[in-house]
Write a structure and sequence with these properties.
heterodimer; A: alpha/beta; six-stranded mixed β-sheet; four-stranded antiparallel β-sheet; globular; disordered N terminus; B: mainly alpha; MetI-like fold; 10 helices
Chain lengths: 270, 235
């Protein structure tokens, strides 16, 4: 696994257009090369090299503290990296500023704690980005937001505030909020870890349907079932390193490294 | 009692002028304080430094010294707070437009001083907003300014309302200093005028002036309690 600099033909000043049209479909959506990051003395990412193809669903698994969330958050630069390079859709991540804001608008992110805007209704949460970032007309943006809420199955909750919704509903609203920006890829940072067990399924259903529709997804999760049936590739991360990767069937059936064997034995025996 | 009744016009106009002073200085402090708070949380280090320096200076210098500086030092370099002669506004608050600068200077001094406290009250409100809110805003592509305006500040206001109220109540009481720095006709100047110059009985005059301030501060406190209760319901 040695990703090279993707020389996408879409680089330069070309006006933004839907990804599938504007860019080489063979070019990876996300490329990380020799990425290192420290939190003080703690080396959270160690020489991470990763390439995610367009339409690929990658699941990242690993023990807590292994750097999975940090990995996920570096892709839209919510966490800046210490050294190395990250490209998204052929463009290296810009430094803080307007260019970065523009890039972030093309990367959907779903958080463990939902992070819906607490002072806005569900509908306003979903339409805020399209109205403020994409300058869509409010009426059109709300209409599209309603369609998305319908897609994730909570159109009837549109006028409620986040605190009035169940965890599963909140997370589906958060997915709708990310989708409203028509992102080129979606990052999921443990999207079901804060949910009551009976609500995990409804969120995974939405994610599965996204995967089937060809969305590029990086999913940090403990949901082995989702990893098995929706992912094209599973990655095991430990101590800040990408230890092992394989298609899910092989990943779970024939783990190669001792660390993954040990991890799987701990989580799969119960 | 006669002292109060005989001078009720003076008390009433004094009350009105103090009210005007407080409204204008209050609005000014809230605006300037908000700008300062945004500076202090901005991602640009020099702006943060500017905001922090401002707060450190004006929060730590006594208000009397700020008044001295504004009323006596600034005019020597030609500053007479003329920027407060805002067209339209000076029709409502007629003292803004007049030649003598003391009303404007009093607003300016109170504003400079109070803004530092408004900034800190707002910042405590900003700190009460969970960091995930700003992260989510950034992740959908909002710029810093949009993030502050649409996500962080609207939620920070809620957490800051009660400390902000205390700051404004303190400012109303502080406005009594204005009468000792050139302003004529507000409550504190009326007190001075009646007791020192005209030799009226000090205790009834004091009670009337104190009542004038209480009429301003106590209802504000009640309004704040109401706002707090309403928010507790919607939360």
């Amino acid at each position: 696994m040695a990703p090279t600099r993707p020389d996408g033909p879409a680089a330069g000043e070309a006006e933004p257009a839907p990804a599938a049209v504007a860019t080489d479909p063979g070019e990876p959506m996300i490329v990380m090369r020799q990425v290192d990051k420290w939190f003080g003395d703690l080396h959270v990412l160690r020489d991470v090299n990763l390439s995610v193809a367009r339409g690929e669903v990658v699941v990242v698994i690993g023990p807590s503290g292994s750097g999975k969330s940090t990995l996920c958050r570096t892709i839209n630069r919510l966490e800046p990296i210490g050294s190395g390079q990250i490209w998204f859709d052929g463009q290296e991540l810009p430094a803080e500023g307007r260019a970065l804001a523009r890039l972030r608008s093309e990367v959907g992110m779903v958080f463990q704690a939902f992070n819906l805007f607490a002072h806005k209704t569900v509908l306003a949460n979903v339409s805020l980005g399209p109205i403020r970032v994409r300058r869509e007309k409010p009426a059109a943006a709300r209409e599209r937001a309603m369609a998305l809420l319908d897609r994730v199955g909570i159109a009837d909750q549109a006028d409620k505030y986040p605190a009035q919704l169940s965890g599963g509903q909140q997370q589906r609203a958060a997915i709708a909020r990310a989708l409203a920006m028509q992102p080129k890829a979606m990052l999921f940072d443990e999207p079901t870890s804060a949910l009551d067990p009976e609500m995990v399924g409804e969120v995974l259903d939405v994610m599965t349907s996204l995967a089937e529709d060809g969305m590029t997804m990086v999913v940090v999760t403990h949901e082995m079932g989702f990893a098995r049936h929706a992912a094209r590739r599973a990655i095991f991360m430990a101590d800040g390193e990408l230890v092992e990767e394989a298609p899910p069937a092989e990943f779970f059936a024939h783990p190669r490294s001792d660390r993954l064997k040990d991890f799987l034995s701990k989580i799969l025996t119960h | 009692m006669d002292v109060i009744l005989n001078n009720r016009d003076a008390f009433f106009s004094g009350f009105l002028l103090t009210l005007q002073l407080c409204v204008l200085a209050g609005v000014g402090s809230l605006l300037l304080g908000t700008v300062l708070a945004v500076l202090r949380i901005s991602p640009v280090p020099p702006l943060r430094w500017l905001g922090t320096s401002y707060v450190n200076v004006f929060r730590n210098v006594p208000l009397t010294v700020v008044f001295f500086f504004v009323v006596f030092a600034l005019p020597t370099i030609g500053v007479r707070a003329d920027f407060l002669q805002i067209p339209g506004l000076d029709q409502v608050f007629t003292r803004l437009g007049i030649q003598l600068p003391y009303f404007r200077m009093a607003i300016f001094a109170l504003m400079l001083y109070t803004a530092a406290f408004v900034c800190e009250a707002l910042r405590s409100g900003v700190n009460a907003v969970p960091p995930g809110q700003a992260e989510a805003a950034r992740s959908i592509g909002l710029t810093f300014t949009q993030n502050v305006r649409h996500v962080v500040l609207p939620q920070a206001w809620k957490a800051a309302v009660v400390p902000l109220g205390s700051v404004i109540i303190a400012m109303i009481k502080n406005s009594a200093l204005a009468g000792f720095f050139g302003l004529t006709g507000d409550l504190s100047a009326t007190f001075q005028q009646l007791v020192s110059a005209r030799g009226q009985a000090a205790i009834p005059v004091f009670l009337a002036v104190a009542a004038g301030f209480l009429v301003l501060t106590i209802p504000l406190g009640l309004v704040l309690d109401q706002v707090e209760r309403r928010q507790a319901v919607t939360r």
